[in-house]
Amino acid sequence: MATIRNLKIKTSTCNRIVKELHSYEKEVEREAAKTADMKNKGADPYDLKQQENVLGESRMMIPDCHKRLEAALADLKSTLAGLEETGEKEGPEIEEAKKTVADVEKQFPTEEA
């Protein structure tokens, strides 16, 4: 049953990375609004530059999350295919994994869909 355990771990990994990606997207929106507000209020140039650096770092995390999600999704799909080859095609873990794959592909269609 080690493969079912691996499947559960890989499913959780995909779910966690999706949550992380959404969190970074919200952070970028928040930081962009804060930066725009600082520009409008005529904030100190040094503070504005630091805020722009914070925004830049947040934006850099989104492509990184996309890459990790693609890798985790490919890993999940291969584990799922391996289980189906061994004859295990049903069970709550397998259904959860299939649902996760479908959800991720629906949310991020530019990936290996």
From TrEMBL:
GO CC annotation, single: microtubule
Keyword entries, A-Z: Chaperone, Coiled coil, Cytoplasm, Cytoskeleton, Microtubule
UniProt-annotated location(s): Cytoplasm, Cytoskeleton
Domain of life of the native organism: Eukaryota
Coiled-coil intervals: 14-41
UniProt-recorded Gene Ontology molecular function terms: beta-tubulin binding
Region (Disordered): 83-113
Family of this protein: Belongs to the TBCA family.
Name of the protein this chain belongs to: Tubulin-specific chaperone A
